[in-house]
Specification:
40% helix, 3-stranded parallel β-sheet, 102 residues, alpha/beta, 4 helices
């Protein structure tokens, strides 16, 4: 398909590290499309994903994110308020298990 002078928005369900959605953006751009941005249902807000999106110069708009879901879970009693910090620490560095002892 010839996307010369065509515009596109990429729709994604979940963004973690951003790898797969950036691949789609690159393919569209190589085909000549102007990628206006990405819309997603959820994003973890992982630094690697944020960096990749910035490097690719593409903006993502998400319906919700990890921080919001964790805070709503605490506000509604599904988790303890102090667990929000543990979840955020885990999200920021999943291989660092020190979040367990917070």
């Amino acid at each position: 398909m010839d996307w010369t002078s065509g515009k596109a928005v990429v729709v994604e369900d979940l963004i973690s590290t951003g790898g797969s959605v950036i691949e789609v953006v690159n393919v569209l751009r190589e085909a000549g499309a102007e990628v206006l941005g990405i819309v997603s249902i959820f994003t973890y807000g992982m630094q690697k994903g944020l960096d990749r999106l910035a490097e690719a110069q593409v903006r993502n708009i998400s319906l919700t994110d990890f921080d919001t879901v964790a805070q709503v879970a605490a506000d509604t009693g599904y988790i303890k308020p102090e667990d929000v910090a543990k979840l955020i620490k885990f999200r920021n560095n999943p291989s660092d298990e020190s979040w367990i002892t917070l």
